[in-house]
Each structure stands twice: as C-alpha cells, then as structure tokens.
Amino acid sequence: MVCREYNISHCIATKGIDHLLYVVLPPDMVLAHSKTWLLDIEGNIMYPSCLILQKLKQFNRQLKVNKDLREEIDHLRQEKSRFDNIYKQLSKKLELIKREMTDVIEQATLAFEQR
Prior knowledge:
2 helices, two-stranded antiparallel ribbon, mainly alpha, 2 strands
C-alpha cells in the first residue's frame, strides 16, 4: 500500500531507503481511511514496514497510558472504599448522637411539665 507521499518520504528521510520494506497485509487488516493501494500479485495490500513500526509504537504508547489509567482507577476504588467505610462509621455516630439528643429533649420536656 502506498500511503501519502509525505509518510513514505518521511520514512526514507529518517531511516534511509533500505528501511522502506513492504509488509503484505490481507485487505481486512488495513486501515479503511487509506486511499491509494499498492497490491501484490495475489491482490494482498502491501504496507511500508516503517509505517507498521510507527503504528506499533503508537499502540505500545497507548497500552502504557491504559495501564497507568487502570492503576489510577484501582487506587481511586481503594480510596472510595475507605471513604465509604469512614462515612458509614460517621453516619452511625451521628445517628447515635441524634438519639441521645432526642432522649435528652424528652427528659427535659418531662421534667419541665412535672414542675
């Protein structure tokens, strides 16, 4: 497959002409947005290997980003779990304090009425 001339000339300029080897890919594995194709005898699409390496590097970078995001998500889940536990404890304490306040108010009301 022949991609935009810029990409091919970029590969030639950065790596030299001997690195511009073609890798044969079946048509279903090639990006759909490509416009110009270089076909071999059997009709398979040929793709410059330097561009495949470029895409592989992009893929590996994205895997690293995904791994970092997964680790951050796991850390946030642990924090949420701790927060939920503390929240439950505080809710129980608040409920207990409200009950005590209600009891004290009732006792004060009874004491006031008995006078």
